[in-house]
Give the backbone structure.
Amino acid sequence: MNERPEDLAELQAVLDRSYEEAGPHLRDITTPDRRLDAAQLAERLTGMRLLVLATSTRDGRPINGPVDGIFHRGRFHFGSSPESLRYRHLLERPAVSATHLPDESFAVTVHGDAELIDVHAPEHAEFERTLLDIYVPRYGEQWAEMLDGGAWYARIHPRRMFTFWMPEV
């Protein structure tokens, strides 16, 4: 878990505000006993967590696809290639939605704006180290070379974020 107390406080405020503003149908499903707080969420989202990320085309059509999600400092991050369609979408329209749904007992959805970040910048050194710790043991040093070769990452700044947890399913 990479979250600091201030990250958890900010994340908790987003979760609380999101549920306060949610419609009745969502609140009926995600009752207080079926939600995770910020600390519980950060504990569950260690390592790489597959996300389905939605961007939009110029004419407003949604388009989604899988990305590796890294939850770091209370925010989802994801990467891709500068040649990807996703990258071009985000340069023009940073609004995104992403969902992590490993099974029917747990889900987290975030709606917000993606900010492209330079993982090699000094202010992102901790995140770069997290990436290397996750991927180099799995894929070898060539993964670090790929990161150095131009892969990009983005951080999602959440406007709304929802959790669902029902372990008895």
